[in-house]
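>> received
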Amino acid sequence: MTDTRPLPVLTEPDTAEFWTACGEHRLTYGTGPDGEVVFFPRRVEGGQTRESAGRGVVYTFTVVRRHGHPFFRAHAPYVVAYVDLDEGFRMLAEVDADPDAVRVGMRVEIGWEDHGETAVPVFRPADTVAT
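>> returned
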C-alpha cells in the first residue's frame, strides 16, 4: 500500500492532454463542433480545447470521513464537490476547506496540488486564493 495520492495515467489518449495542461496549472475543457461545452476530458471530433479561468460555485458536496486507501485515510475528513465552472461545465474535485465551512453556492477558485509531471486540480474558497 502507498501513502501517496493515486495519480492518473498520463499517456491515456482521451485524458493525456487534460493532465498535461494540469501539470502547467491550466484547467482545460473541450467544446464540440457547435461550440457546446464537453467535459470530462474526452476528445470530440471537430471540437476545440479551451482554458477555464477556474472559477465557479459548489453545486453539491459530500464530506468523506473514512476511506480505505492510505492516502485518503490520512487526508480525511475532506470535501469532494461538483463544481459548476463559470464557462458552463461541471466537474468533480476536492475542495480544500474546513468541511464545516463548505456550502452549496459557495464561490471557489482553482488551486493545484503538484505531483511531478502533473498537478491535481483542487478548489479553494474564492476569498482565500492568493492572486
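>> The first helix runs from residue 16 to 23.
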